[in-house]
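Quick entry between incubations.
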Amino acid sequence: QVLLQESGPGLVKPSETLSLTCSVSGGSISNYYWSWIRQPPGKGLEWIGYVYYNGNTKYSPSLKSRVTISVDTSKTQFSLKLSSVTAADTAVYYCARAGQDGPDFEFWGQGTLVSVSS
Amino acid sequence: QSVLNQPPSASGTPGQRVTISCSGSRSNVGSNYVYWYLQRPGTAPKVYMYRNSQRPSGVPDRFSGSKSGTSASLAISGLRSEDEAEYYCAAWDDSLNGVVFGGGTRLTVL
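Done. Structure below.
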């Protein structure tokens, strides 16, 4: 069974950079798309982007200018950095594994709430 | 405003059949697979239908999916109280070059 676990600060100040890491266990990091998805409180799901195991990335056009997703295959981890955050970035952030179809998120982390506040 | 359009709510009584729709465009639903996710409060979403109409193991056969043109739907027959949850559709969008979700449909079992 593949397990994903998000980690990182639960509180970030406005204008700073949100940084999260997702640790993967129970399976290979190769040949999959490792994604970040967020959900503001009481709202729907928003895809942030993904990193392929070889380092290739795709980002949501609405967040592209502020997002960096990277992978460390030696540690079986991948990371999210979101810069210049505002209160609108307050959300539960999920990491997930996807296959070739794109939205085929078979495995998810439990999610971590990140609040943006001074 | 979500790229894929879902009704915000749906409801039914136990035993009834309920259908949740997901409307998109040629660049997403019209040309790519649709996935459906079920999310219960405080938990991560779980895939309930993949590639339009394929049911993952463990999902009851009361659930079925279909797609026609730029619309997809998730049908639940023999509605049960445990089906009460939020349902999301998702697809790849060729124009946006990314994954798009519907806004979610809250299903209530009366």
